[in-house]
Automatic annotation (TrEMBL):
Domain of life: Bacteria
GO biological process: sodium ion transport
Membrane topology: Multi-pass membrane protein
PROSITE patterns associated with the record: NA_SOLUT_SYMP_3
Any one GO MF annotation of this record: symporter activity
InterPro entries from the UniProt entry: Na/Glc_symporter_sf, Na/solute_symporter, Sodium:Solute_Symporter
Family statement drawn from the similarity comment of this UniProt entry: Belongs to the sodium:solute symporter (SSF) (TC 2.A.21) family.
PANTHER family membership: SODIUM/PROLINE SYMPORTER-RELATED (PTHR48086), SODIUM_PROLINE SYMPORTER (PTHR48086:SF3)
Name by which UniProt lists this protein: Na+:solute symporter
Biological source species: Candidatus Enterocloster faecavium
Amino acid sequence: MNIGYMEPIDYVTLSLFFLIIIGIGIWSKRTVQSSEDFYVGGGKVPWWLSGISHHVSGYSGVVFVGYAGIAYAQGTAIYFWWAINIALAMSISAVTIVPRWPRLRQALGIESPTEYLRVRYNTPTQMLVAISGIVVKLLDVGAKWASLGILLYGFTGLPIWLGIILGSMASMIYVSIGGIMADLLTDFVQFMVTLLAGLFLFFSVLMHLGDYGLTLGTVAQALPEGHLTIFNAGRGQGSVSWTLLYFFVIFFSYSGGTWNLAARFISTSDDKQAKKAAFLSSALYVIWPLILFFPMWCGPIIFPGLTQAEAEASLYASLAGKFLPVGLVGLVLAAMFAQTMSMCNSDVNTISAVITRDVLPKFFPAIETLEGKKSLYVARLTTVLFTACTVIVGLMNEQFGGVTGMILSWFAALLGPTAIPLLLGLLPIFKHCDSKAAIASILAGLGVFVATKMGLKLETDIELIAPLFTSFVVFAAVGLVNQYVLKKEVPSDVEQLMNKLGSK
């Protein structure tokens, strides 16, 4: 495959896209008067916008880079271990975890997902979760910036570092100006752009199947052996065991363990709106990936003989260059940028909230009392600084195992230790799990992760889940000891919080 398919009109299309999203950021500025507006949209975000944003924020250039390579090399299994897993997880979370996020905002006035931990546990626990999560997100967002650079290289031939810089700078401009409302509105625009580009490429590939002597009914027979399957063989990525275990990573991530996704629910007006948003996101994960992945699944027929790494580097760009007319190639690249920028902006906005609301006040107490324009200034400053740090990590992505390695190995493994006390702390059944349970679970999970990186050999599926499972077991065990052995009473403020969050 060749690198670089962009014509002058494609660059015009891409440039217009960047101007539009920056314009949305500037327009959104009028709605932002305080940190509450900046981080949670004043708690007035409608369910349909929250649901679409939650869905879009689950995508990034990783889908079109790392996952494109997996779809090319392994086939349809990725739809089941990724998309269907998310759909199932969100359906369950919609009636368990999700409604509690807006209730938290109503009860405590939170603006960040970790802000409630001070009441639920104590300040040291809040700080440990916050700092650990910030480190995890440095890797996660850095990987997504790297995927942007790879996408730009595939479409234009420009250096990867340039794509990282361009994408991050455009994102930083509009999200630092308009906050979460700019993020949500651009998510919607980006979804529509991606929908248009994805549908056009889907139908283009479909109509050209005849060039290869195929129809929709016969294309499955032309795919490599094992590509049309629900699960891959063995215990590696996409296997039965791996998929089932990965479900738990997905559940804790998309329910709010990935903090930017929690922010989508916190920003809704009430629990009913949040629940509807979660179900909408779930439904989209069932439908949209089928259209999105179809051209990638046809990749071995159209571009045979590629390695997975080669497919990661240029498959989607090559498909667009081969099947789309001039002008629409730029739209596809804009769509890829859109998905990635959406997720990164969501992350940056939420992490800025955590830094501003949870971390900085412990070192500079005066920050906690800031209101209006002054609180907004701090919010924007932390947004810019955190973005700069993620760019540095993105430029160093190969040192962390590349894009796919950073997402599936580092982020997935590190998510659990921070997500367990954050999410399970919302549920009354775990109300006996105190700060000691939370801290012990975090340290135990991180310890297992470090051990695997230091040489502890585990099966791929076990390694994926080991940190999260360890954190869960330790968290629950300490809670049981508190309840049945030590007979500890649940603190009154925790009982009150559980009552406000509800039993359902």
